[in-house]
Design brief:
alpha/beta; four-stranded parallel beta sheet; about 240 residues
Length: about 240
């Protein structure tokens, strides 16, 4: 499950790695990739669309990997429909967004929407976005894959998703998350800092926590080999 500034195609390396052993599915949120948009972009609506996709694919229960925004949707799914969750990886995500008074959220939206209000597209902004999200020495093939993924996102959908993200808060439900859980962070991630993710992991029953050294917010692109091995180690431990 992808982040706000990417879509399902950026999981290509992971799909190739794991598809020989598992049935692998990369889901596009509404409006991303070839997924039909929705007018009311809320976490409950996103979970409903995700459930519809699972039903159409005849998947009653699965292991999920949720990155950033995708990790938020995954937490919402796990709280509303725990019977769907065989296990999950919460990767560079958070249990809540912003501060209680809303000032941080307003500034977050202002900074990210201002360039688009001046006529910029995601294709224009993609190099800046990815540069701000990566760590020390990102894999260049991965970065190109990320750029191609970001280029495809319509401005309207990106804005809808950003406005949705700032409403997220599942802190009170962390103790309810069931099944094996891996909480995965990057040492250089400023969007989902390791200290925050480690604290999040400490509140999830029996969660494992791993921090990837030198890596930012896009581990599956920055260090696909290390990322894949980390997921593989988690899967074979179950």
């Amino acid at each position: 499950m992808h982040g706000v500034g990417t879509e399902a195609s950026y999981w290509q390396v992971q799909l190739k790695k794991f598809s020989s052993r598992f049935r692998t599915i990369a889901w596009n949120a509404p409006g991303y990739g070839d997924s039909n948009p929705i007018s009311r972009f809320t976490f409950k609506a996103l979970v409903k669309r995700l459930e519809r996709a699972l039903d159409e694919l005849k998947v009653s229960k699965a292991f999920f990997v949720g990155h950033s925004f995708g990790g938020m949707i995954l937490q919402e799914l796990a709280v509303l429909h725990p019977e769907r969750i065989a296990g999950m990886v919460l990767y560079s995500t958070s249990s809540a967004f912003g501060k209680a008074d809303g000032t941080w959220q307003k500034e977050f939206l202002r900074k990210r929407l201002a360039p688009m209000q001046k006529g910029k597209t995601l294709k224009d902004l993609a190099p800046i976005i990815l540069r701000e999200l990566t760590g020390d020495s990102p894999d260049q093939a991965g970065i190109l894959l990320g750029l191609e993924s970001t280029h495809k996102i319509p401005n309207k959908v990106y804005e809808q998703a950003l406005r949705c993200i700032v409403t997220f808060d599942q802190r009170s439900n962390l103790e309810k998350l069931k099944g094996p859980v891996l909480v995965l962070s990057g040492e250089k991630d400023l969007n989902a800092p390791p200290a925050m993710m480690q604290k999040m992991a400490s509140r999830i029953p029996n969660a494992n926590y791993v921090c990837l050294q030198g890596i930012g917010h896009l581990a599956n692109l920055e260090c696909p080999g290390v990322f894949n091995r980390t997921l593989n180690d988690f899967f074979i431990s179950l």
